From TrEMBL:
The species this protein was found in: Paenibacillus ehimensis
Database matches in NCBIfam families: PRK11402.1
Transmembrane segments: none
CDD domains: WHTH_GntR
Protein known as: GntR family transcriptional regulator
Keyword Membrane carried by entry: no
């Protein structure tokens, strides 16, 4: 397919379609970086403004993803995240055949706010572990997670959580607690500067914000978590109850 300057279709739209065809035909694969704007200018013999507009269109429709300070990449296939699932992040990743990893950004003991205390069914001001982490799949950040665990129920968890293990595995082995169910509230927000940096996305990119309260088999709250992830990387699904 060659560019046709005499057609009514703008050049940037022609390039957009050509790039999309290349991706669909496997020339550029998921997670693979496409040529730079300068290189694309040479390939198509057009201005950088034209190339930039074509790329912006592909970012808007989810075909491409910009990663700060790295470049523009073909978007990964979307992960299917079951909304009713009670598995932790490590279990979820292994089910997909992916390699999970996490990086702790911050871990500290803080007093429970009134809202937090109500959700976790604890006394306001009682100690909770506030754990801020990035969750990676195949070395790419997928989730930002801010979690709160009541230390009156899980004493010394702040020391044990440093182990390179699944949090849910620690809760089961060290405290005899398993997650049985959860409630989730989901909305969409724009990525702030800090979230964009953490998730390697554009400022203002659409993010799912998932607020989750996990419960044990006795309906006691185990933790309160807020997850953030790009909407173009995850499909949130709900299966019909039998």
């Amino acid at each position: 397919m060659n560019l046709n300057p005499s057609t009514a279709q703008p050049l940037y739209m022609q390039i957009r379609q050509m790039l999309k065809n290349d991706i669909q035909e496997g020339k550029y694969k998921p997670d693979e970086q496409i040529p730079t704007e300068a290189e694309l200018c040479e390939i198509y013999q057009v201005s950088r403004i034209t190339i930039r507009k074509a790329i912006e269109e592909l970012v808007k429709d989810g075909t491409l993803t910009r990663i700060q300070r790295k470049g523009t990449f073909v978007t990964s296939s979307k992960f299917q995240n079951e909304l009713l699932s009670v598995s932790g992040f490590s279990e979820f990743s292994h089910q997909l055949g992916m390699i999970p990893n996490s990086r702790t950004l911050r871990s500290e003991v803080v007093p429970a706010s009134a809202d937090m205390a109500e959700r976790l069914q604890i006394e306001e001001g009682s100690p909770v572990l506030e754990l801020e982490r990035l969750m990676y799949v195949n070395e790419r950040p997928l989730f930002y997670d801010l979690a709160h665990y009541p230390l009156t129920r899980f004493p010394d968890l702040e020391k044990k959580i440093a182990r390179d293990e699944s949090t849910y595995k620690i809760l089961k082995q060290d405290y005899g607690t398993e997650i049985d169910s959860n409630d989730k509230i989901i909305n969409v927000i724009g990525a702030t500067k800090d979230l964009a940096k953490a998730l390697e996305c554009d400022v203002g990119a659409n993010l799912f914000r998932i607020v989750k309260i996990a419960y044990d088999s006795h309906d006691r709250p185990v933790h309160l978590s807020t997850f953030m992830c790009e909407t173009n990387k995850v499909n949130l699904t709900v299966h019909r109850a039998k």
